[in-house]
User: Fold YEATS domain-containing protein from Eucalyptus grandis.
Amino acid sequence: MSARKQGDGQPEDGGATAGKRLKIAKFSEDPEKKGLSRRLKDAEISLPIVYGTIAFYLGRKASESQSHKWTVYVRGATNEDLSAVIKRVVFQLHPSFNNPTRVMEAPPFELSECGWGEFEIAISLFFHPDVCDKQLDLYHHLKLYPEDESGPQSTKKPVVVESYDEIVFPDPSEAFYARVQNNPAVIVPRMPAGFNISAPVAPENTSERERGDTKDHPLSQWFMNFSEADELLKLAAARQQVQAHIVKLRRQLSVMDGMPQLSKPAPAYE
Assistant:
């Protein structure tokens, strides 16, 4: 584990990584269970997630081997509870840590540690049986030190690095669709008029479960905004900049078109 191994291509003081759609392979039907849960053909359910780390410098008084406190996590893109889809998350830390394989069976899916070095964390997502029978493996580079090292590192402003992805489940089961059709963390397809699947009866102890959303998380002030509304605002601002640039170029062209053309000098003959 290197003490100051910098991640490639990271923005200053961490930053956000552009999202991508991670399509999970179609559910491999067990012949003995086939027919127990019908599937919605040519439909997709997607789950936007954010995974990353937040690292705080503990100051000069901290020991050399415990210079930073950091948290790695998987959260909803708008801080919603992911437990309707994700059953557990496994974080694989550097072998130098005690018990480097950490299993989180309930939300919030996160863990906190102290250390001095940067390394790659493997994050494995496991889903409920009616969602998918395959795990999804993600990788995140823990970043402790800001890119700008001209001055002393701040103990108040953390280094934040987050990635946004959408997990896509093709041909979802009707049971999965019924459970999440009204879940704010999940994007469900529009079904034909008259199509209706009643949601399963919730267990009696559901109200006793702790909320798994991260809206009131103590680190939420440092979370980045990946909401659709925020992205639309960014697109609108970019479109306005492009339109203003086009208007400016047209004005420059019209001025150039209105300038008198210089006549070519007559050829000189000796």
In short: Residues 242 and 248 are 10 Å apart (CA to CA).
